[in-house]
Amino acid sequence: MGSKKVNLKIRVLILLFGCVNLSGFNSSGKINILRENLEDLRGQFKRQSIEQSEKQLSGRAVYEKYCLTCHQSNGSGVPGMHPPLGPGSWVGKEPKDLIKILMEGLSGKIEVNDEVYKDNMPSQSKLTDDEIVEVLTYIRSNFGNNYKSVTPEMVKSVRANHLK
């Protein structure tokens, strides 16, 4: 949501800057302030984009290390063994449920997208809170998914209850 606010601010400043120029108002002091504000917003937007890209890369690295073997590089899974991670899968569940699955693992028959899967998923409780945030956010925003990010607070809450 932060990037939407930045985009809106940039649009407003561009609109204002365009109106000032069209109206013939040439007070260089006010125009310079608008330019500086626009540059500040551009810098904030770039920093946010870089941070998001770094988180995506970190999440992808965790996925490739711990999840790829079973769920495949494209999240398609292995029929009858390991479920897919795309739309309609469990990835759309509440983040706390997914965090719990990562920490505790999963065994027995499960059904995803009308297909039964029988293999076990081992616990990934050895992952750090940051790794869990990154990998689940990566999965929830890739493979055709567009779900909200997992937050560190969500992971801390589940881990605190998990350790009781």
Q: Name the strands of the widest sheet in spatial order.
A: 1-2
Helicity, as a percent range: 55-70%
Tell me, briefly, the overall form: elongated
Using the coordinates above, name the CATH class of the largest domain.
Answer: Mainly Alpha
The fourth-level CATH homologous superfamily of the largest domain is Cytochrome c-like domain
Supply the number of structural domains. Answer: 2
The count of β-strands is 2
Instruction: Provide mean pLDDT, rounded.
Output: 81
Taking the sheet with the most strands, its summary is: 2 strands, antiparallel
The total count of helices amounts to 6
Distance linking N and C termini: 34 Å
Q: Which CATH architecture of the largest domain?
A: Orthogonal Bundle
How would you classify the helix and strand content by structural class?
A: mainly alpha
Runs in which pLDDT lies below 50 for 5 or more consecutive residues are none
The share of residues in extended strands comes to under 5%
Instruction: Indicate the radius of gyration in whole angstroms.
Output: 22 Å
Helix and strand run: HHHHEEHH
Task: Write up this protein.
The protein has 164 residues and is mostly helical. The protein has 2 domains: 66 residues; 91 residues, Orthogonal Bundle (Cytochrome Bc1 Complex, Chain D, domain 2). It is built from 6 helices and 2 strands. The chain has a two-stranded antiparallel ribbon with strand order 1-2. It is elongated and about 65 Å long.
Task: Spell out the blueprint of helices and strands.
Elements (H helix, E strand, L loop, with lengths): L1 H21 L5 H39 L1 H4 L23 H10 L5 E3 L2 E3 L11 H12 L11 H11 L2
Antiparallel strand pairs: 1-2
Helix pairs in contact: 1-2, 2-5, 4-6, 5-6
